[in-house]
């Protein structure tokens, strides 16, 4: 396992797929590197590629607003993506691109050791939960894995296209808040 400096350097120098050739910046993550909650999205968009940070465009602003509304503190979470470079025209990363980046994502999960992973959208759920799942079938359902809980839900960008999903995403993220409070209460003996 690489430490954070090694991971940043390795990602910055990565040329494992064609996405590296078109990127402006590598987009590794943002937030508390020892957070109890990790949000995982699909891949960087235009704003993310420009700034080198995930979820800073319209979908990210929506996510930040949602997290603020539900009283999440910035030190409670870390945000990353399956792929670290922007796919052309903001398309969904293909399987080869995702597979090449998965070791970096796994390394991030190992470093952060979150209690909860929130898969934002079908791409994240596909590579974190199972390849053959459909987000519409598993969203909002807790999945327990070895050392953490997984909550698959809609990507905030889906809300920008379809407002009817807003209530469901809000409900799912509210469940995440409830679960982390429960886990922390159990840990402290309460």
From TrEMBL:
<dbReference type="InterPro" id="IPR051536">
    <property type="entry name" value="UDG_Type-4/5"/>
</dbReference>
<keyword id="KW-0479">Metal-binding</keyword>
<dbReference type="GO" id="GO:0004844">
    <property type="term" value="F:uracil DNA N-glycosylase activity"/>
</dbReference>
<dbReference type="Pfam" id="PF03167">
    <property type="entry name" value="UDG"/>
</dbReference>
<dbReference type="InterPro" id="IPR005122">
    <property type="entry name" value="Uracil-DNA_glycosylase-like"/>
</dbReference>
<keyword id="KW-0234">DNA repair</keyword>
<protein>
    <recommendedName>
        <fullName>Type-4 uracil-DNA glycosylase</fullName>
        <ecNumber>3.2.2.27</ecNumber>
    </recommendedName>
</protein>
<comment type="similarity">
    <text>Belongs to the uracil-DNA glycosylase (UDG) superfamily. Type 4 (UDGa) family.</text>
</comment>
<keyword id="KW-0411">Iron-sulfur</keyword>
<keyword id="KW-0004">4Fe-4S</keyword>
<feature type="domain" description="Uracil-DNA glycosylase-like">
    <location>
        <begin position="28"/>
        <end position="174"/>
    </location>
</feature>
<dbReference type="GO" id="GO:0046872">
    <property type="term" value="F:metal ion binding"/>
</dbReference>
<dbReference type="GO" id="GO:0051539">
    <property type="term" value="F:4 iron, 4 sulfur cluster binding"/>
</dbReference>
<keyword id="KW-0227">DNA damage</keyword>
<keyword id="KW-0378">Hydrolase</keyword>
<dbReference type="InterPro" id="IPR036895">
    <property type="entry name" value="Uracil-DNA_glycosylase-like_sf"/>
</dbReference>
<dbReference type="GO" id="GO:0006281">
    <property type="term" value="P:DNA repair"/>
</dbReference>
<keyword id="KW-0408">Iron</keyword>
<dbReference type="InterPro" id="IPR005273">
    <property type="entry name" value="Ura-DNA_glyco_family4"/>
</dbReference>
């Amino acid at each position: 396992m690489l430490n954070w400096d090694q991971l940043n350097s390795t990602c910055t120098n990565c040329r494992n797929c064609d996405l590296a050739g078109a990127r402006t910046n590598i987009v590794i993550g943002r937030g508390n590197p020892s957070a109890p909650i990790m949000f995982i999205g699909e891949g960087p968009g235009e704003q993310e590629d420009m700034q080198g940070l995930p979820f800073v465009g319209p979908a990210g602003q929506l996510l930040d607003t949602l997290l603020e509304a539900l009283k999440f503190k910035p030190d409670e979470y870390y945000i990353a993506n399956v792929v670290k470079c922007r796919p052309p025209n903001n398309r969904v990363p293909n399987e080869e691109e995702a597979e090449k980046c998965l070791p970096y994502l796994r390394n991030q999960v190992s470093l952060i050791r979150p209690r909860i992973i929130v898969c934002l959208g079908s791409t994240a759920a596909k590579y974190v939960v199972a390849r053959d799942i459909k987000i519409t079938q598993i969203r909002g359902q807790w999945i327990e894995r070895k050392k953490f809980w997984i909550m698959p839900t809609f990507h905030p960008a889906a809300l920008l296209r379809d407002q009817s999903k807003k209530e469901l995403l809000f409900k799912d993220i509210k469940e995440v808040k409830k679960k982390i409070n429960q886990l922390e209460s159990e840990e402290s003996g309460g």
